[in-house]
Structure formats: C-alpha cells, structure tokens
Specification:
The structure holds two protein chains of two kinds. Chain A is α/β, with parallel strands linked by helices. Helix content of chain A is 27%, strand content 18%. Chain A is built from seven helices and twelve strands. In chain A, strands 1-9-8-5-4-2-3 form a seven-stranded mixed β-sheet. In chain A, strands 7-6-10 form a three-stranded antiparallel β-sheet. Chain A has a two-stranded antiparallel sheet with strand order 11-12. In chain A, β11 and β12 form a beta hairpin. The longest helix of chain A is centred in the N-terminal third of the chain and has 16 residues. Chain B is an alpha/beta fold. In chain B, 38% of the residues lie in helices and 24% in strands. Chain B has ten helices and ten strands. In chain B, β1 and β2 form a beta hairpin. In chain B, α4 crosses α5 and α4 packs parallel to α6. Chain B is globular and about 55 Å long. The N and C termini of chain B lie far apart (38 Å). The chains are: A alpha/beta, B alpha/beta.
C-alpha cells in the first residue's frame, strides 16, 4: 500500500457523497441517483463508475475480487485489483465465496452469492429508455410516471424480425415492480440471478454519473410477452475443461481450420471444479 | 348524443410574451361530433389545439373533459400523470407531418402496436392481430406490416399514423392539418377514409386546417379564427355558404375553384 494515497484513493468527502447516493439508491431500488462522479486514474469505459462505488464501500477488513467477462485474469480485472491493492492494502482473492466485495464487468459469478456480499457492476449507459427517448428530462418523466410501455416495442421488433427476442445482454428488467433498469451489459443468462439475490447489488456509471442499486432479496423481472416468455441461452455441449452444464460458456476458436470449443466464462468456477475433480 | 359535452373549453387564452396566441376561446364538443377550426396561418388554430391537447400550457381558461367513467375533469388542473394517461387512452393526436407522429426506425406493426403496449397489452400475437386489422382498416396492404414507415409513401405514412392513433379506440382525436403536404388525389382518398372512420367509430374530432374543402367534407361545425380570436362559429355548410363576418367572407371567397 502506498502511504501517500488516501485509503481507497478517493478523499473522504467524495466517499461520503457517494455513500449518500448509495443509500438513496438502496432506498429506491432501480432508481438512478445522480452523483458527482470524479476523474479516476483510468479512462471512461474501463470501469470508473464501478471503481468509485467500490472505493466508497470498501474497508480495511474487506476481501476484494475483481472480474472482467467472468475472468479474474484479464487486463481490466488485473489492473483494477492492483489499483485497490496499492491504494487500500486489502486482501484480494479470486474465490467468489471468500470475497466480501466483488467488482464485475459483464458477469454475475456462477457460484451463488450470499448475504453480506456486495457485487459492484460497471455500467456504460444506465438509462434503459435512452434508445427511444434522447432527452434526459423526458426519460426522467417517463420513469416518474411509469411510462414503460414503449419498451416492449423493442421486444416486439425483435420477435417480428428474428422470431424471438434477440437482445442477448443488457436485457431490461423491472425492479421491485417499479423502476425499469438496465442491468449493465451482463448476458441475459445472468438476469435470473438478479432476482431476489441475497447479496447487495450496486451499479455505478462513471461517465453518466449515475448510481443505482438492487437491495438483497428484491424481486427483479425481465421484460417479456405472455406468448413469448423470457428465456436464457442454452448450450448443446458442456464446458470442455470442467464438464459443467447450465453455466454461461464462452466460444473459443482453437485453430485456423474452424475448430472451436466452449469453456466456462467464470474462470474461478471452472478452476475449482477441475481441482475438485482431479 | 348524450346530454353532456365531451370537451368544454372556456376562456382559453395563451400569451407568447406580449403576443397573443389565442384570446378567450370557448366552445363545446359533443361525443361523435367533428369540429373544424379554420383560419389563416398565425391565427392561433394550432395554439388552441396544443393547449387543449396538453402540449402547451395556456395562460388562462378551463378545459373540461368527460372521462370514460363519467367524471368531468379540468385538464389544466389535473396532474401531469393523469393528463398523460388520458392522452394515451382517450385521445389521439394526428400530426401534420407523419414523421412527428411515427417512429420511423421501427416497423409499421410496432408503430400501430405501441399504444396497446403502453396500455399494458403483453400478448405479442394479439398485438400483431390488432395491428393487421388496423392496417386493413386504413387501406394499407397487410403484407406490409413488417416494413418500415420510411418505405411508405406520404399518404401511407399519414394513414399509418391514423391507425396508430385509433388502435386504442380513443374517443377524441386531434388532427393538425391532416392532409397538409399531400397531393390532391391522395388527399381525397385520405379524406374519404377519415370520414368513414369518424362515422363508423363515432369519434369526436377537432380538426385544425386552413383548407376549407377538408372541413366541408369532415366537419359538422366550424370555428373561424383570426388573430387569436373566434370571429364566427356555426354549422359548416352555413358558414361556407353564407359567411357573416367579413373575415369569413374573405376566407371563403379566396378559395380557388378550378
């Protein structure tokens, strides 16, 4: 830990401000709370929102895990983990059940979360209505008045064009029967894990300066039609490394002859299974 | 006809700074009645329409509306949430330019179905059936349900806009120059269609236009506006055949006859 940084990089006043925003976000599940986003020593789009949220909730006793696309060893995950090691000195881990704070991009771990854990999402575009309404003032009004019907136009278009809903990630959800929320670019495979999750789910968008939250055990429902219910992806093959089924698999090209294989996107989950099986 | 007007406007005034948009406008609209508002450009017709439809906030006046459940509400006093709900459920608004009233980047079917989805319909098959039905009603080939409005002609876009508005069976439709920008034969067809729909569905409508021929075909009653004020009102045929006010006389006599 570098002594000339304040604990977790941000100054105490900033962390307080972000914690106030977080409290409000938890009090109103799915509502986007504006906050004074700070310049972080990494570029927008690399997780500035998530990093600020993590910096505000992390304490010296916490154990941190950082994942990017399900993996603990990709560039983004490694640099953010290193950042917090340097600025907080907290213990880090790759094991989901050991971590008290998990910052994530694109995935919810396969290992079920438990009460007391915090999952921090990095969010690129927080506003689910943005694609149909460019004006912020109007989208806020639509949220306030629960005018969400037009969201189904997008699903209608998908079914019309492709015969099913093709939105595969960032699939819109209703939180606690009220606010429409973008679950950040997680695959829709992970949407059911949002529903009544025992962990606290926090979402930070750095560029757009918005924070929102799903408190533990909050109902989260993915949008769908009665005759085209919400479904998640399935794979014909199990993971080529650990043989797991019913998990999210990444497609990996293995040679230049069109050969490909499917492996778990959650590297920690996959490694643990292989260790147990070996 | 029921004994109560659907829409009752009293003392409606809108100032744009020191410039009057409309002054002390008042009228009643009965269920199933079509009212035309005519006048030259800048006479305040569209201002009146926008004030009633909740798109502009008037400076003074009341607009009472009889809701489906039999209550009479003052549209200018109720909350914005209730007003927007009424606008979704009980009104339609047909814009002069179909691009303002349509979503150009989604298919015709989604355009028609959007209001149903906004009212909470969540059955894809039934929404699609309703869209097909309404496309047929406005004389658009059902096979074009999955085409984008950008691929439609101006007249078809305007008819699509009408279908999109009528799919929820509103009781009141506001139309701002519905035939503006269309050539005469397309105009005639659209007018024919509008007349049939208005009669079949017993729609009440407020039609703003500068085209007296349109009002002759569609409107039961006329308001003639000039500089923000109503200068004459009465039955359409009466005003067009025997205008009393000098301005109405001027308006009627300036229509070109081929």
């Amino acid at each position: 830990m570098k002594p000339h940084y304040n604990f977790a990089y941000l100054d105490e006043q900033t962390k307080r401000m972000i914690r106030r925003a977080l409290l409000k976000a938890v009090a109103i599940p799915g509502y986007q709370v504006p906050f004074g986003g700070r310049e972080m020593p990494l570029s927008y789009g690399w997780g500035t929102g998530g990093v600020q949220v993590t910096a505000s909730v992390i304490g010296p006793d916490d154990v941190l895990k950082v994942i990017d696309q399900g993996a603990d060893d990709t560039t983004n995950a490694v640099s953010i983990r290193h950042f917090f090691q340097r600025t907080t000195g907290v213990r880090t881990t790759t094991r989901t059940e050991e971590a008290s704070v998990i910052q994530t991009r694109h995935r919810i771990p396969e290992t079920p979360l438990r009460e007391g854990q915090i999952l921090v999402f990095q969010v690129p575009i927080p506003e689910p209505l943005r694609w149909l309404e460019p004006r912020e003032i109007e989208t806020r009004k639509m949220h306030a008045l629960e005018e969400y019907g037009a969201m189904h136009v997008r699903l209608y278009e998908d079914i019309t064009r492709y015969g099913k809903v093709e939105t595969a990630y960032d699939y819109p959800v209703r939180v606690n029967g009220r606010y429409l929320m973008r679950p950040s670019p997680i695959p829709k495979f992970d949407n059911p894990k949002l529903d009544r999750n025992p962990a606290l789910l926090l979402f930070g968008a750095g560029r757009e300066k918005r924070i929102y939250a799903v408190p533990p055990h909050t109902p989260v429902k993915s949008l769908d039609f009665d005759d085209h219910p919400f479904t998640v992806e399935t794979w014909d093959t199990p993971c080529a490394l650990c043989g797991a089924t019913g998990v999210f698999l990444d497609e990996i090209v293995v040679d230049d002859k069109g050969g490909r294989t499917f492996v778990c996107s959650d590297t920690d989950f996959c490694e643990r299974r292989r260790e147990a099986g070996a | 006809m029921s004994e109560r007007p659907l829409l009752s406007v009293r003392g409606l005034t809108k100032w744009y700074g020191a410039q009057p948009g409309c002054l002390d406008v008042g009228f009643d609209l009965w269920p199933g009645e079509v009212l035309g508002i005519v006048g030259e450009s800048g006479s305040g017709k569209t201002t009146v329409l926008n004030c009633i439809a909740g798109r502009l906030e008037p400076s003074a006046g009341t607009v009472s509306f009889a809701t489906r459940d039999g209550h009479v509400v003052d549209l200018l006093r109720i909350s914005e949430a209730s007003r927007r709900r009424l606008a979704r459920e009980d009104w339609g608004l047909v814009h002069q330019n179909p691009r303002d009233g349509l979503r150009m980047n989604v298919t015709a079917g989604a355009n028609v179905g959007e209001r149903l989805m906004a009212l909470g319909h969540r059955h894809y098959g039934r929404i699609r059936d309703a869209a097909l039905d309404w496309l047929a009603q406005v004389e658009i080939d059902r096979a074009r349900i999955d085409d984008f409005p950008t691929a439609f002609s101006g007249g078809m876009q305007q008819r699509l806009q009408i279908a999109r508005n009528l799919v929820t069976e509103p009781r009141l439709v506001f139309m701002d120059e519905p035939t503006g920008g269309l050539d005469v034969s397309v105009q005639a067809r659209l007018l024919d269609l509008l007349r049939r729909l208005v009669t079949d569905l017993a729609l009440a409508a407020v039609i703003v236009t500068h085209d007296l021929a349109v009002t002759r075909l569609l409107a039961h009653r006329l308001l003639v506006m000039r500089r923000g004020e109503i200068v004459e009102s009465g039955l359409t045929d009466q005003i067009l055949d025997d205008p009393q006010h000098p301005y109405s006389q001027l308006l009627v006599s300036s229509v070109l006859r081929p």
